[in-house]
Amino acid sequence: MPRVSLIRRSRTAGPGASATCPALLAVPAVPAAVPALPALLAVLALLTSCTPSRPPEPAPGPPARAPRVCPPGQWPWECVAECESSGRWHVNTGNGFYGGLQFKHSTWVAFGGPAHAARADLATKRQQILVAEKVLASQGWGAWPVCSARYGLKGRMHVVKRGETLAALARKYRVTGGWRTLHGLNRSLLGDDPGRLVAGTFLRLPAAAGPKSADELFGPPLEEA
Length: 225
Fold this sequence. Notes:
Layout: E1 5-14, E2 17-26, H1 37-48, H2 77-85, E3 97-98, E4 103-104, H3 105-110, H4 125-139, H5 145-150, E5 157-159, H6 166-172, H7 178-185, H8 187-190, E6 202-204
Antiparallel strand pairs: 1-2, 3-4, 5-6
Helix pairs in contact: 6-7
């Protein structure tokens, strides 16, 4: 049987893939009287075996975590405290953060906490929440970066007090567009009546509303500290 000569050369198979493929340089003529089928099949097998190797597909990343649901009776501060301190409103572990919401002491002082108690862990739950509401209006839920993300809480909010109006709040926070802007942001809560303000309602504030204090992050959840 005639001998078929193959010489191997390295050849790049294409962008992002490489393979070493045999290049057929010469196949001598085979006399008609000699069965050439086995030799030709061998050549075809070598040629078709040169399949470009492609880079592996990137592994999929971890699935995005859906925000946890905070029960209506605990929304939002009970859930934030459960995340921050396992709901221990008077905790002081010596990590520099205090109380159920893990106030940094400078934050407690800056937002009027000493009017209630010397430190957050010495204040009542209600007093801690009152100070936290001031932080929320000034800095937003980002002050509790881990726990707000856990419950899908975003942006700055004002908790309505008895007797407040949208017009007064728009002046307080220097909202461009006045009460109409506030009403538009909170129409899903207030409906078409801009005077429908109920004490305890969490009103969304525009990101550009003022005054805004320097960021004061609260402590990380105690299990992660």
